[in-house]
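Go through this one:
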Amino acid sequence: MDIEKFQQIHLQIPSPLHEIHDSLWSEQNIRIFIKRDDLIHPIISGNKWRKLNEYIRLAQQTPDYSLLSFGGAFSNHLYSLAYVGYVMGIKTIGIIRGEELNIQSNPYLIQMNQWGMNLHFISRDAYRKKEIPTQLGEIRFILIPEGGYGKLGLKGMKDLSSEIMQEIKPDYLITALGTGTTALGLIQSYNIKTIGILTLKNKKEIEEHIIEHAINAENLDLHTVYVFDKYAKSHDFLDTFCALFETSHQIKIEPIYTGRMFYGLYDLLKKKYFESGSTIVALHTGGIKLTDGAF
């Protein structure tokens, strides 16, 4: 199955753009829309598909190659890659952090193995160095950096930018940042004011990515205060915020990525960060947990 047919049959592309309402911003004459990339697909939702699609196109041009990437024991990135490989007939390889694990260690790994992903478990030290297991021998592969980052991951955001701009001309985009691929890809495609809410303490890494890809980031505003200690750390106030947001807007968010992003957006609105009359598009990049502990 080629990628165009896969998108047509399995994915909701373009994803919907929904306006949400609250007195907090209506009193400031501000409109907020949510780009619902979480609705693209139950498994490969959000920016997972956006970051993978250019790698998949390349894999279809080189069918003798596997797609290889890295992730933790509950990686939604690898889970999405395994699923796409299974449906589209593309060979996939997952390098998993933790040599103590095996293909039966959790439901994610069990399912990924059943979808045909070739799983390899390496030590944390080897994972930090992104070492390729010697067992892979002469297998030819296309490397997808952890989380889908890279030149092709950035390029994959062009369609997302086009979908937004064809429907609305926002004054601001706001998105959560992990590797920074989504925000940098958007800036690279359409250089409009973009607010990046960091979810881990990697601002220096993001700045290095900007230099690496020669991206004009004058309109990118990075916010580090919403990391709250460290990546994925649980906080009752974030869980409460996500629950209240879902009750108010009937849109599910999680506290690691989209929850932190929307919390930051509400905080910036309270601080009158945006000019009156602004239109904001917030990106729902998926990230909804499939099983407890998965992110």
Confidence is low (pLDDT under 50) at residues 289-295. The chain has two domains: 3-45+157-284, 66-139.
